[in-house]
Amino acid sequence: MSKSRHDRVIKALYNICMSYKPYEKAKANAAHIEVSYKPIEIEGLARKGETTKYRYDYYPDLWFELRKPREDNRKIDVFEVWDTEPETERIQDIILASLVKGIWSFSIACLSEWQRESAKRLSNIILSHLYNDEGKHLLNPKKSVFISLITPELLSNEKMLKTQLQKDFKFI
Fold first, then answer.
1. For residues 83 and 56, what is the distance between their CA atoms, to the nearest angstrom?
2. pLDDT band, very low/low/confident/very high, at 17 (cuts 50, 70, 90)
3. What's the predicted TM-score (pTM) here?
4. In terms of Cα–Cα distance, which of 128, 162, 163 is closest to 145?
């Protein structure tokens, strides 16, 4: 993974989020930049009705837990930056994000056109088949997944990069 491109996008996202009103006093967790970081704990039962719980630590690139929940008590926003990740890691990101209890949005910044097309295709295919016990989408691909294409031109201009991320991830 090209850390400099990847980390530049994470840093820009982090800075946008820190100045965005809903994230005031939110818990921020960012990988690869100098910010405290902890994983999101995903818990589940082996089978419905069993009592043995299993836990998995999900390490997204950036995530925020809001102090006040949004609709449906959802208060976690997850951000991933896709650069050179193989398809198996991209699939894993989508599935794990959908399993995060209280997730409101899943945003993917893609550093190539083929990554963006992959994000659209994989998120729609995978998320359209994942439901909770009440029959609702774990993460609705049409309402809660945001995808942005980060071009080399955007990477070379921090102001343009932030403007594009804000637009694509619905900060403005």
1. 24
2. confident
3. 0.88
4. 128
